[in-house]
Amino acid sequence: MLDNKNNAKIVIELLASHLGVEPDDVSEEDSLTTDLHMQVTDMSDFLSLLEGNDINTSRIDLTEIDTVGELIEALSETI
Fold this sequence. Notes:
Layout: H1 4-19, H2 40-52, H3 68-78
Helix pairs in contact: 1-3
């Protein structure tokens, strides 16, 4: 099991790559929709990317997640 710091780093790096930005431009406090301008389809595509990297997203409910930190926390509970 990965610790939360490693989870955060992995998720932020994958999210930054998915969005075409630098990891330093993404913080745990960023809102997925407001700050990162992600639409539902963007978030769904990102969850598919996580699945492709062997990260279980089956229990992730996007309606309950607003920030990058909330996503990391939800993913940590499934690892």
